[in-house]
Amino acid sequence: MRSLSSRLLVSVSVLLLFFFGATIAVLDTAFREAGEQARRDILDGQLVALLAAAEPDDTGKLVMPERLREPRLERIGSGLYAELRDMQGDVLWRSRSALGLEIPEGVVPELGNHLFARESLDDGTPLLTLSLAVEWELDNGDSHPYVFKVAESLDSFNAQVAGFQRQLFGWFAAVAVAMLVAFSMLLRGLLKPLRQIETEITEIEEGERASLSSEFPTELNGVARNMNLLIDSERARSDRYRHTLDNLAHSLKTPLAAMRALLNDTRQEEFGRRCNEQIDRMDEIVRYQLRKPAAVAAENLVLKSVSVEKEVTRLIDGLRKVYHDKAPAFDAQIAKGLQFRGDTGDFLELAGNLLDNACKWCKHKVRIEAVPASAGRSPASGLVMTVSDDGPGIPAEAADALLQRGMRLDETTPGHGIGLAVVKDIAASYNGQLSIGRSTLGGASITIAIPPAKSS
Fold first, then answer.
1. Which of 60, 76, 153, 280 is the most buried (most CB within 10 A)?
2. Predicted structure pTM score
Protein backbone atom coordinates (compact mmCIF):
# COMPACT_ATOMS: atom_id res chain seq x y z
CA MET A 1 0.00 0.00 0.00
CA ARG A 2 1.52 3.26 -1.12
CA SER A 3 -1.37 5.42 0.06
CA LEU A 4 -0.75 7.09 3.42
CA SER A 5 -4.50 7.24 4.07
CA SER A 6 -4.88 3.51 3.43
CA ARG A 7 -2.00 2.71 5.76
CA LEU A 8 -3.50 4.84 8.54
CA LEU A 9 -6.96 3.34 8.06
CA VAL A 10 -5.59 -0.21 8.13
CA SER A 11 -3.52 0.59 11.24
CA VAL A 12 -6.52 2.10 13.01
CA SER A 13 -8.68 -0.86 11.96
CA VAL A 14 -6.17 -3.30 13.46
CA LEU A 15 -6.02 -1.29 16.69
CA LEU A 16 -9.82 -1.09 16.89
CA LEU A 17 -10.07 -4.83 16.26
CA PHE A 18 -7.57 -5.51 19.04
CA PHE A 19 -9.02 -3.13 21.64
CA PHE A 20 -12.66 -3.88 20.82
CA GLY A 21 -11.89 -7.61 20.91
CA ALA A 22 -10.27 -7.23 24.32
CA THR A 23 -13.23 -5.14 25.53
CA ILE A 24 -15.74 -7.71 24.26
CA ALA A 25 -13.83 -10.50 26.00
CA VAL A 26 -13.74 -8.56 29.29
CA LEU A 27 -17.45 -7.65 29.14
CA ASP A 28 -18.41 -11.20 28.19
CA THR A 29 -16.42 -12.60 31.12
CA ALA A 30 -17.90 -10.04 33.50
CA PHE A 31 -21.44 -10.81 32.29
CA ARG A 32 -20.90 -14.55 32.69
CA GLU A 33 -19.48 -14.18 36.19
CA ALA A 34 -22.27 -11.82 37.25
CA GLY A 35 -24.91 -14.17 35.82
CA GLU A 36 -23.42 -17.22 37.52
CA GLN A 37 -23.17 -15.37 40.83
CA ALA A 38 -26.83 -14.35 40.56
CA ARG A 39 -27.84 -17.97 39.97
CA ARG A 40 -25.73 -19.15 42.89
CA ASP A 41 -27.54 -16.64 45.09
CA ILE A 42 -30.88 -17.92 43.80
CA LEU A 43 -29.86 -21.53 44.47
CA ASP A 44 -28.68 -20.58 47.95
CA GLY A 45 -32.07 -18.96 48.65
CA GLN A 46 -33.89 -22.05 47.35
CA LEU A 47 -31.75 -24.27 49.58
CA VAL A 48 -32.58 -22.16 52.64
CA ALA A 49 -36.29 -22.44 51.73
CA LEU A 50 -35.99 -26.23 51.54
CA LEU A 51 -34.33 -26.35 54.96
CA ALA A 52 -37.14 -24.22 56.38
CA ALA A 53 -39.84 -26.41 54.84
CA ALA A 54 -38.36 -29.76 55.99
CA GLU A 55 -39.95 -31.32 59.08
CA PRO A 56 -39.50 -34.72 60.82
CA ASP A 57 -42.52 -37.06 60.86
CA ASP A 58 -43.77 -39.24 63.71
CA THR A 59 -41.18 -41.91 62.96
CA GLY A 60 -38.33 -39.41 63.19
CA LYS A 61 -37.65 -39.31 59.43
CA LEU A 62 -37.24 -35.99 57.66
CA VAL A 63 -40.01 -35.29 55.15
CA MET A 64 -40.96 -32.41 52.82
CA PRO A 65 -44.43 -30.88 52.45
CA GLU A 66 -46.57 -31.90 49.50
CA ARG A 67 -46.58 -28.42 48.04
CA LEU A 68 -43.72 -25.95 48.18
CA ARG A 69 -43.84 -22.18 48.01
CA GLU A 70 -41.59 -22.09 44.91
CA PRO A 71 -43.93 -22.72 41.92
CA ARG A 72 -41.09 -23.81 39.60
CA LEU A 73 -40.40 -26.80 41.82
CA GLU A 74 -44.00 -27.89 41.25
CA ARG A 75 -43.96 -27.46 37.46
CA ILE A 76 -42.58 -30.38 35.46
CA GLY A 77 -39.56 -29.47 33.29
CA SER A 78 -39.30 -25.95 34.72
CA GLY A 79 -35.50 -26.14 34.91
CA LEU A 80 -35.32 -25.83 38.72
CA TYR A 81 -34.95 -29.11 40.59
CA ALA A 82 -34.49 -30.22 44.24
CA GLU A 83 -33.99 -33.47 46.13
CA LEU A 84 -33.23 -34.86 49.54
CA ARG A 85 -30.89 -37.82 50.10
CA ASP A 86 -29.47 -39.63 53.04
CA MET A 87 -25.74 -40.13 53.44
CA GLN A 88 -25.94 -43.51 51.69
CA GLY A 89 -27.17 -41.76 48.51
CA ASP A 90 -30.74 -42.98 48.64
CA VAL A 91 -33.30 -40.46 47.41
CA LEU A 92 -35.79 -39.61 50.16
CA TRP A 93 -37.60 -36.86 48.28
CA ARG A 94 -37.47 -35.24 44.83
CA SER A 95 -39.39 -32.21 43.55
CA ARG A 96 -42.28 -32.60 41.09
CA SER A 97 -40.28 -30.60 38.50
CA ALA A 98 -37.70 -33.45 38.31
CA LEU A 99 -40.34 -36.06 37.40
CA GLY A 100 -38.80 -38.44 34.87
CA LEU A 101 -35.30 -37.03 35.41
CA GLU A 102 -32.34 -38.42 37.29
CA ILE A 103 -30.42 -35.69 39.06
CA PRO A 104 -26.75 -36.75 39.28
CA GLU A 105 -25.62 -37.48 42.82
CA GLY A 106 -22.27 -35.82 42.29
CA VAL A 107 -19.80 -35.22 45.09
CA VAL A 108 -21.21 -35.30 48.61
CA PRO A 109 -19.95 -32.29 50.64
CA GLU A 110 -18.72 -32.52 54.16
CA LEU A 111 -21.20 -31.86 56.98
CA GLY A 112 -22.06 -28.18 57.24
CA ASN A 113 -20.43 -27.24 53.93
CA HIS A 114 -21.94 -25.85 50.73
CA LEU A 115 -20.71 -27.21 47.39
CA PHE A 116 -21.39 -25.55 44.02
CA ALA A 117 -20.75 -27.70 40.95
CA ARG A 118 -21.42 -27.93 37.19
CA GLU A 119 -23.08 -31.18 36.23
CA SER A 120 -25.37 -32.43 33.48
CA LEU A 121 -28.47 -34.58 33.03
CA ASP A 122 -28.50 -37.79 31.06
CA ASP A 123 -29.61 -35.90 27.94
CA GLY A 124 -26.63 -33.52 28.23
CA THR A 125 -28.51 -30.57 29.69
CA PRO A 126 -25.96 -28.53 31.73
CA LEU A 127 -26.80 -27.89 35.38
CA LEU A 128 -25.54 -25.60 38.13
CA THR A 129 -25.98 -27.45 41.44
CA LEU A 130 -25.70 -26.55 45.14
CA SER A 131 -25.42 -29.29 47.80
CA LEU A 132 -25.48 -28.99 51.59
CA ALA A 133 -24.85 -31.81 54.09
CA VAL A 134 -26.51 -31.24 57.48
CA GLU A 135 -26.85 -33.16 60.74
CA TRP A 136 -30.56 -32.99 61.67
CA GLU A 137 -31.23 -33.25 65.38
CA LEU A 138 -34.63 -34.58 66.49
CA ASP A 139 -36.60 -33.64 69.58
CA ASN A 140 -35.58 -36.83 71.38
CA GLY A 141 -31.92 -35.96 70.95
CA ASP A 142 -31.22 -38.33 68.05
CA SER A 143 -29.56 -36.90 64.93
CA HIS A 144 -29.41 -38.07 61.30
CA PRO A 145 -27.28 -36.74 58.40
CA TYR A 146 -29.02 -35.55 55.24
CA VAL A 147 -27.95 -33.99 51.90
CA PHE A 148 -30.09 -31.21 50.43
CA LYS A 149 -29.47 -30.47 46.76
CA VAL A 150 -30.92 -27.92 44.32
CA ALA A 151 -30.10 -27.69 40.63
CA GLU A 152 -30.93 -25.24 37.84
CA SER A 153 -30.66 -25.80 34.11
CA LEU A 154 -28.15 -23.50 32.38
CA ASP A 155 -29.93 -23.55 29.01
CA SER A 156 -31.68 -20.24 29.63
CA PHE A 157 -28.49 -18.75 31.05
CA ASN A 158 -26.46 -19.84 28.02
CA ALA A 159 -29.16 -18.42 25.74
CA GLN A 160 -28.92 -15.10 27.59
CA VAL A 161 -25.13 -15.13 27.23
CA ALA A 162 -25.39 -15.88 23.49
CA GLY A 163 -27.91 -13.05 23.04
CA PHE A 164 -25.69 -10.69 25.00
CA GLN A 165 -22.71 -11.66 22.82
CA ARG A 166 -24.67 -11.02 19.63
CA GLN A 167 -25.73 -7.60 20.86
CA LEU A 168 -22.19 -6.89 22.01
CA PHE A 169 -20.68 -7.79 18.64
CA GLY A 170 -23.38 -5.88 16.78
CA TRP A 171 -22.99 -2.68 18.80
CA PHE A 172 -19.21 -2.78 18.73
CA ALA A 173 -19.21 -3.45 14.98
CA ALA A 174 -21.50 -0.46 14.44
CA VAL A 175 -19.28 1.70 16.66
CA ALA A 176 -16.15 0.50 14.82
CA VAL A 177 -17.65 1.30 11.40
CA ALA A 178 -18.80 4.72 12.62
CA MET A 179 -15.33 5.43 14.04
CA LEU A 180 -13.62 4.35 10.80
CA VAL A 181 -15.93 6.56 8.73
CA ALA A 182 -15.31 9.48 11.07
CA PHE A 183 -11.56 8.80 11.04
CA SER A 184 -11.47 8.61 7.23
CA MET A 185 -13.29 11.96 7.03
CA LEU A 186 -10.86 13.38 9.57
CA LEU A 187 -7.90 12.04 7.58
CA ARG A 188 -9.30 13.60 4.42
CA GLY A 189 -9.21 16.98 6.12
CA LEU A 190 -5.82 16.44 7.78
CA LEU A 191 -4.15 15.24 4.55
CA LYS A 192 -5.63 18.04 2.46
CA PRO A 193 -2.37 20.09 2.67
CA LEU A 194 -0.43 17.13 1.21
CA ARG A 195 -2.87 16.88 -1.69
CA GLN A 196 -2.54 20.66 -2.14
CA ILE A 197 1.26 20.30 -2.38
CA GLU A 198 0.83 17.54 -4.98
CA THR A 199 -1.58 19.70 -6.99
CA GLU A 200 0.70 22.74 -6.87
CA ILE A 201 3.75 20.68 -7.92
CA THR A 202 1.74 19.39 -10.89
CA GLU A 203 0.82 22.98 -11.78
CA ILE A 204 4.50 23.94 -11.56
CA GLU A 205 5.41 21.06 -13.92
CA GLU A 206 2.74 22.22 -16.37
CA GLY A 207 3.97 25.82 -16.17
CA GLU A 208 0.81 27.17 -14.54
CA ARG A 209 2.54 28.17 -11.30
CA ALA A 210 5.99 29.54 -10.49
CA SER A 211 6.35 28.25 -6.91
CA LEU A 212 4.50 26.64 -4.01
CA SER A 213 2.22 28.80 -1.92
CA SER A 214 2.98 29.58 1.72
CA GLU A 215 -0.42 28.64 3.16
CA PHE A 216 0.53 25.31 4.72
CA PRO A 217 0.50 23.96 8.29
CA THR A 218 3.61 24.56 10.38
CA GLU A 219 4.80 20.97 9.87
CA LEU A 220 4.82 21.43 6.06
CA ASN A 221 6.22 24.97 5.89
CA GLY A 222 9.77 23.63 5.85
CA VAL A 223 8.95 21.22 3.01
CA ALA A 224 7.32 23.98 0.94
CA ARG A 225 10.18 26.42 1.65
CA ASN A 226 12.88 23.90 0.68
CA MET A 227 10.93 22.91 -2.42
CA ASN A 228 10.67 26.55 -3.48
CA LEU A 229 14.40 26.99 -2.89
CA LEU A 230 15.09 23.94 -5.06
CA ILE A 231 12.79 25.22 -7.81
CA ASP A 232 14.42 28.66 -7.73
CA SER A 233 17.88 27.06 -7.80
CA GLU A 234 17.02 24.88 -10.80
CA ARG A 235 15.41 27.83 -12.57
CA ALA A 236 18.51 29.97 -11.94
CA ARG A 237 20.74 27.15 -13.18
CA SER A 238 18.64 26.79 -16.32
CA ASP A 239 18.88 30.55 -16.87
CA ARG A 240 22.67 30.39 -16.47
CA TYR A 241 22.89 27.60 -19.03
CA ARG A 242 20.72 29.51 -21.45
CA HIS A 243 22.71 32.70 -21.00
CA THR A 244 25.95 30.79 -21.46
CA LEU A 245 24.69 29.29 -24.70
CA ASP A 246 23.43 32.69 -25.82
CA ASN A 247 26.86 34.14 -25.16
CA LEU A 248 28.48 31.23 -27.00
CA ALA A 249 26.23 31.68 -30.00
CA HIS A 250 26.83 35.43 -30.00
CA SER A 251 30.59 34.88 -29.81
CA LEU A 252 30.59 32.36 -32.67
CA LYS A 253 28.34 34.26 -35.04
CA THR A 254 30.89 36.95 -35.87
CA PRO A 255 33.86 34.61 -36.57
CA LEU A 256 31.63 32.35 -38.66
CA ALA A 257 30.41 35.31 -40.68
CA ALA A 258 33.98 36.48 -41.18
CA MET A 259 35.08 33.01 -42.31
CA ARG A 260 32.20 32.86 -44.76
CA ALA A 261 33.12 36.26 -46.21
CA LEU A 262 36.77 35.32 -46.61
CA LEU A 263 35.91 32.00 -48.29
CA ASN A 264 33.55 33.70 -50.71
CA ASP A 265 36.40 35.95 -51.80
CA THR A 266 38.65 33.02 -52.74
CA ARG A 267 38.81 31.67 -56.27
CA GLN A 268 38.64 28.05 -55.19
CA GLU A 269 34.92 27.65 -55.63
CA GLU A 270 34.80 23.93 -54.75
CA PHE A 271 36.86 24.47 -51.60
CA GLY A 272 34.67 27.42 -50.63
CA ARG A 273 31.49 25.44 -51.24
CA ARG A 274 32.66 22.59 -49.01
CA CYS A 275 33.83 24.93 -46.28
CA ASN A 276 30.49 26.75 -46.42
CA GLU A 277 28.73 23.41 -45.92
CA GLN A 278 30.73 22.81 -42.75
CA ILE A 279 30.09 26.36 -41.55
CA ASP A 280 26.38 25.78 -42.13
CA ARG A 281 26.70 22.58 -40.17
CA MET A 282 28.40 24.44 -37.31
CA ASP A 283 25.70 27.09 -37.39
CA GLU A 284 23.01 24.40 -37.31
CA ILE A 285 24.67 22.75 -34.30
CA VAL A 286 24.75 26.07 -32.44
CA ARG A 287 21.06 26.65 -33.14
CA TYR A 288 20.23 23.13 -32.04
CA GLN A 289 22.10 23.50 -28.77
CA LEU A 290 20.35 26.82 -28.16
CA ARG A 291 16.97 25.19 -28.61
CA LYS A 292 17.61 22.39 -26.14
CA PRO A 293 17.38 24.35 -22.84
CA ALA A 294 14.09 25.88 -23.91
CA ALA A 295 12.60 22.54 -24.93
CA VAL A 296 10.63 20.66 -22.30
CA ALA A 297 10.66 17.04 -23.46
CA ALA A 298 10.85 15.20 -26.76
CA GLU A 299 7.22 14.15 -26.63
CA ASN A 300 6.09 17.76 -26.34
CA LEU A 301 8.06 18.92 -29.40
CA VAL A 302 6.51 19.33 -32.82
CA LEU A 303 7.91 16.19 -34.45
CA LYS A 304 8.97 16.24 -38.06
CA SER A 305 9.97 13.52 -40.51
CA VAL A 306 13.73 13.49 -41.10
CA SER A 307 15.17 11.63 -44.09
CA VAL A 308 17.63 9.16 -42.58
CA GLU A 309 19.48 8.43 -45.84
CA LYS A 310 19.98 12.11 -46.67
CA GLU A 311 21.31 13.07 -43.23
CA VAL A 312 23.56 10.00 -42.96
CA THR A 313 25.05 10.83 -46.37
CA ARG A 314 25.80 14.37 -45.19
CA LEU A 315 27.43 13.07 -42.03
CA ILE A 316 29.58 10.57 -43.94
CA ASP A 317 30.76 13.28 -46.36
CA GLY A 318 31.82 15.45 -43.45
CA LEU A 319 33.57 12.61 -41.61
CA ARG A 320 35.51 11.67 -44.73
CA LYS A 321 37.08 15.11 -44.62
CA VAL A 322 37.71 14.98 -40.86
CA TYR A 323 39.37 11.56 -41.05
CA HIS A 324 40.95 11.95 -44.52
CA ASP A 325 44.28 10.65 -43.18
CA LYS A 326 42.65 7.45 -41.93
CA ALA A 327 40.34 7.18 -44.95
CA PRO A 328 37.73 4.82 -43.40
CA ALA A 329 35.59 2.78 -45.77
CA PHE A 330 31.91 3.53 -45.07
CA ASP A 331 29.18 0.97 -45.71
CA ALA A 332 25.74 2.58 -45.40
CA GLN A 333 22.78 0.19 -45.50
CA ILE A 334 19.73 2.43 -45.10
CA ALA A 335 16.21 1.20 -45.76
CA LYS A 336 14.77 3.08 -48.71
CA GLY A 337 12.50 5.94 -47.70
CA LEU A 338 13.23 5.48 -43.99
CA GLN A 339 12.20 8.48 -41.89
CA PHE A 340 13.13 9.50 -38.35
CA ARG A 341 10.16 11.04 -36.54
CA GLY A 342 11.66 13.82 -34.41
CA ASP A 343 13.99 16.78 -34.33
CA THR A 344 16.66 16.97 -37.04
CA GLY A 345 19.28 18.05 -34.53
CA ASP A 346 18.48 15.04 -32.34
CA PHE A 347 19.04 12.65 -35.22
CA LEU A 348 22.30 14.35 -36.22
CA GLU A 349 23.48 14.05 -32.60
CA LEU A 350 22.57 10.36 -32.54
CA ALA A 351 24.08 9.32 -35.83
CA GLY A 352 26.95 11.85 -35.76
CA ASN A 353 28.29 10.78 -32.36
CA LEU A 354 28.09 7.07 -33.21
CA LEU A 355 29.77 7.50 -36.61
CA ASP A 356 32.44 9.77 -35.13
CA ASN A 357 33.25 7.17 -32.45
CA ALA A 358 33.38 4.41 -35.06
CA CYS A 359 35.76 6.44 -37.27
CA LYS A 360 37.94 7.26 -34.27
CA TRP A 361 38.39 3.60 -33.23
CA CYS A 362 38.12 1.67 -36.50
CA LYS A 363 41.03 0.22 -38.44
CA HIS A 364 39.50 0.72 -41.86
CA LYS A 365 35.80 -0.19 -41.99
CA VAL A 366 32.69 1.53 -40.63
CA ARG A 367 29.18 0.24 -41.23
CA ILE A 368 25.84 1.92 -40.49
CA GLU A 369 22.55 0.07 -40.81
CA ALA A 370 19.11 1.59 -40.33
CA VAL A 371 15.73 -0.13 -40.63
CA PRO A 372 12.21 0.61 -39.36
CA ALA A 373 11.40 -0.61 -35.85
CA SER A 374 8.06 -1.96 -37.09
CA ALA A 375 6.88 -3.57 -40.29
CA GLY A 376 5.51 -0.31 -41.73
CA ARG A 377 7.34 2.37 -43.64
CA SER A 378 5.45 5.31 -42.22
CA PRO A 379 7.27 8.08 -40.30
CA ALA A 380 5.76 6.70 -37.12
CA SER A 381 7.23 3.20 -37.63
CA GLY A 382 10.27 3.86 -35.42
CA LEU A 383 13.93 3.29 -36.09
CA VAL A 384 16.63 0.70 -35.36
CA MET A 385 20.10 2.03 -36.20
CA THR A 386 23.35 0.10 -35.73
CA VAL A 387 26.85 1.52 -36.17
CA SER A 388 29.74 -0.97 -36.14
CA ASP A 389 33.48 -0.92 -36.89
CA ASP A 390 36.48 -3.23 -37.16
CA GLY A 391 38.37 -1.68 -34.23
CA PRO A 392 39.35 -3.17 -30.86
CA GLY A 393 35.74 -3.22 -29.62
CA ILE A 394 34.32 -2.46 -26.19
CA PRO A 395 34.74 -4.95 -23.30
CA ALA A 396 31.40 -6.11 -21.90
CA GLU A 397 32.41 -5.10 -18.38
CA ALA A 398 33.12 -1.51 -19.53
CA ALA A 399 29.94 -1.00 -21.56
CA ASP A 400 27.86 0.47 -18.72
CA ALA A 401 30.70 2.76 -17.57
CA LEU A 402 31.07 4.26 -21.05
CA LEU A 403 27.49 5.50 -20.91
CA GLN A 404 28.42 7.83 -18.03
CA ARG A 405 29.54 11.33 -18.87
CA GLY A 406 33.32 11.80 -18.86
CA MET A 407 34.14 8.07 -18.90
CA ARG A 408 36.70 6.97 -21.51
CA LEU A 409 38.60 3.75 -22.17
CA ASP A 410 41.69 5.40 -23.63
CA GLU A 411 42.77 8.78 -22.25
CA THR A 412 45.36 9.18 -25.03
CA THR A 413 42.67 9.40 -27.71
CA PRO A 414 41.21 12.89 -28.27
CA GLY A 415 37.71 13.40 -26.93
CA HIS A 416 35.66 14.37 -23.91
CA GLY A 417 33.90 11.10 -23.06
CA ILE A 418 30.35 12.45 -23.35
CA GLY A 419 29.32 11.27 -26.84
CA LEU A 420 27.69 7.99 -25.82
CA ALA A 421 26.08 9.61 -22.78
CA VAL A 422 24.51 12.24 -25.06
CA VAL A 423 23.30 9.52 -27.43
CA LYS A 424 21.79 7.57 -24.54
CA ASP A 425 19.98 10.65 -23.18
CA ILE A 426 18.54 11.61 -26.57
CA ALA A 427 17.40 8.04 -27.28
CA ALA A 428 15.76 7.89 -23.85
CA SER A 429 13.85 11.10 -24.59
CA TYR A 430 12.20 9.19 -27.47
CA ASN A 431 11.57 6.15 -25.21
CA GLY A 432 14.43 4.40 -27.01
CA GLN A 433 17.26 2.20 -25.77
CA LEU A 434 20.97 1.93 -26.47
CA SER A 435 22.85 -1.37 -26.44
CA ILE A 436 26.55 -2.18 -26.92
CA GLY A 437 27.79 -5.44 -28.41
CA ARG A 438 30.34 -7.05 -30.72
CA SER A 439 30.07 -6.49 -34.47
CA THR A 440 30.68 -8.99 -37.26
CA LEU A 441 33.50 -6.73 -38.42
CA GLY A 442 35.38 -7.53 -35.22
CA GLY A 443 34.94 -4.26 -33.34
CA ALA A 444 32.17 -2.55 -31.41
CA SER A 445 28.52 -2.57 -32.42
CA ILE A 446 26.22 0.10 -30.94
CA THR A 447 22.48 -0.16 -31.59
CA ILE A 448 19.77 2.45 -30.98
CA ALA A 449 16.20 1.17 -30.96
CA ILE A 450 13.50 3.88 -30.99
CA PRO A 451 9.93 2.54 -30.84
CA PRO A 452 7.17 3.77 -33.15
CA ALA A 453 5.84 7.20 -32.18
CA LYS A 454 2.48 7.17 -30.42
CA SER A 455 -0.42 8.84 -32.12
CA SER A 456 -1.62 12.05 -30.49
1. 153
2. 0.45
